[in-house]
Amino acid sequence: MHFDFVDLRLLVHLADTRNLARAAERSHLSAPAASNRIRNLERDLGFPLLYRSSQGMTPTPAGEAFVHHARLVLEQVQHLAGDMQEYGEGIKGHVRIWANTTAISEFLPAALSTFLRDYPDVNIDLREVLSGEIVKGVADGATDIGIVAGNVHAGQLELLPYLDDRLVLVTAQHHRLARQQSVDFAQTLDDNYVSLPTSSAIHMFIDNAAQALGGRIKLRIQVGNFESACRMIEAGVGIGVVPQSIARRHARSMSIAIIPLNDAWAERKLKICVRALAELPPFARTLVEGLMADAAAASIRRP
Q1: Total-model pTM
Q2: Closest of 74, 71, 7 to residue 44, by C-alpha
């Protein structure tokens, strides 16, 4: 069976809009031409892909499966076009990485700098994404490598050990919680928070933890990076939840207190997530192996 990319896009647009006219417009087709394409596709398949009603068109179960695979195919074609353009410009490889905030800000810069120096003809696309979405991205082929935190259900994907890091509470030295041996996250929800932008993976993670307790983070100020957050916390603007490795580094030069969180989710085990390590291109596999070697060396140095 042969599928037309125009049909794939049309069905995706129909699933998004539930309206034939709008889907046809997005596909650069007339409404009659779009309707004919759908009828012909359903005739060739032998079953309907869409429910028709006065409210519009919605996918049947078969249609939902078709749209799911169509999205994957179109996304891969887009990646193919981008990679081919880079090959034409002299680039020999392209690695896509989705990672959480901690990995991007603390662990990956040095490792990726070394890799890019050793492989000047390889490009890296690095994006900050929530762990659950990272797993889906790896499974769907939207990214080659994922770095996730916490307990995630990876299905048939490979999870490789990377690094351990905790989330801790950071306060000014004079804050009421600064002398506590440890603290429950729930005890902090009455305080003003210093946070990374609401679009950051770590902010969304912490906000979800607050909502699970029936509360919300009281945002006093949002800043662009952890260093700025720690400086605001030092100045007494508010408190914050920060990866322990980052908090310890900034505590060397700032007057801040670091208080362990008792919550189970504060224990963060970072893992590298791939569909299959053996199936990665050689340069991507080399990168993963380098990340694991760096992590092993770091765990030996860590007291």
Answers
A1: 0.61
A2: 7
Report pLDDT digits (tens) over 2-36.
788 899 999 999 998 999 999 999 888 899 999 99
Share of the chain above pLDDT 70, in %: 94
DSSP string, the chain: ----HHHHHHHHHHHHH--HHHHHHHTT--HHHHHHHHHHHHHHHTS-SEEEETTEEEE-HHHHHHHHHHHHHHHHHHHHHHHHHHHHTT--EEEEEEE-HHIIIIIHHHHHHHHHHH-TTEEEEEEE--HHHHHHHHHHTS-SEEEEES----TTSEEEEEEEEEEEEEEETTSTTTT-S-B-GGGGTTSEEEES-TTSHHHHHHHHHHHHTT---EEEEE-SSHHHHHHHHHTTS-BEEEEHHHHHHHHTTS-EEEEEB-SGGGEEEEEEEES-GGGS-HHHHHHHHHHHHHHHHHHHH--
Alpha carbon distance 38, 52 (integer Å):
12
The reported pLDDT for the residue numbered 140 is 83
- CA dist 221 and 240 (Å) reads 10
Look at residue 236 in the predicted model and tell me its pLDDT.
95
Average pLDDT over residues 236-252: 93
Q: Is the pLDDT of residue 104 over 70?
A: yes
